[in-house]
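Fill in residues.
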């Protein structure tokens, strides 16, 4: 499979590059000019397209002929960076391409997620401060995801819990709604978030799904997982 990774130089992106290469995919990475050096260790094995990830022309050049596109959605700045990135991918990826986007639990697809007071407070306070400082705009990531959800493309939006570094524990488990018991531990290794993104490329059960993920070795996952229920089954007890 030929796979484009938009945001390849970040922490999540670099893990995705490694997983994609491990699976034998051909990789095209997109990152900002000043970050190309972060991909040096992959230099002989991937093609790098440098430029802003919300530049439609940069994205068009990178995604042509790709069967899958993995996109790191980040709401940096207040210039609709995440929305521009998502839109560029939606506009230019091949019509049959598998499109997988990353975001956090705070994104909701159907309004059925049940958030803790702590998460709601964090989003409210961090969102307000970040916007005031013009550092980030969480609404931008929401708008980016709304556009993906509304598209008829073969998308998956992977919603990450709190992240931590460390060795891989294996493929995270998932559920449709934050608040489901299996997700209670709210912790995923970043390397495994990347593993889930790459595995999603070849998992048709995840097409037009917005899985919220959690580490497979966490207490809640061991107690209540696996969370892969059939589409018409009730949510986890
Ligand atoms: N961090 C968390 O705790 C957490 C929790 C849940 C979900 N997530 C989700 O996980 C994904 C990756 O998050 P991460 O925290 O692991 O970040 P990350 O992988 O380190 O990625 C950050 C990305 O943002 C880019 N970036 C940084 N500053 C930028 C700027 N000023 N303008 C434009 N791009 C900029 C980086 O590109 P350069 O390499 O060019 O700097 C990189 O591609 C995101 O979708 C996030 O919503 C994160």
């Amino acid at each position: 499979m030929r796979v484009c990774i938009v945001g390849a130089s970040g922490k999540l992106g670099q893990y995705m590059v490694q997983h994609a290469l491990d699976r034998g995919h051909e990789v095209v990475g997109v990152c900002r000019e000043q970050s190309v050096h972060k991909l040096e260790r992959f230099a002989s094995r991937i093609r790098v397209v440098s430029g802003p990830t919300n530049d439609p022309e940069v994205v068009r050049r990178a995604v042509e002929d790709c069967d899958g596109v993995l996109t790191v959605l980040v709401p940096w700045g207040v210039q609709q960076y995440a929305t521009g990135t998502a839109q560029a991918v939606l506009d230019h990826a091949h019509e049959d391409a598998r499109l997988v986007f990353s975001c956090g639990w705070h994104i909701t697809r159907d309004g059925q997620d049940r958030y803790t007071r702590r998460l709601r407070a964090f989003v409210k306070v961090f969102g307000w401060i970040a916007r005031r400082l013009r550092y980030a705009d969480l609404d931008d990531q929401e708008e980016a995801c709304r556009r993906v959800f509304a598209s008829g493309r073969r998308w998956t939006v992977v919603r990450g819990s709190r992240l931590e570094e460390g060795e891989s524990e294996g493929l995270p488990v998932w559920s449709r709604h934050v608040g489901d018991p299996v997700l209670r531990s709210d912790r995923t290794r970043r390397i495994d978030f990347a593993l889930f993104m790459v595995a999603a490329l070849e998992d048709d059960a995840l097409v037009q799904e917005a899985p919220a993920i959690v580490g497979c070795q966490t207490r809640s996952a061991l107690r209540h997982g696996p969370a892969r229920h059939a589409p018409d089954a009730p949510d986890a007890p």
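The radius of gyration is 17 Å.
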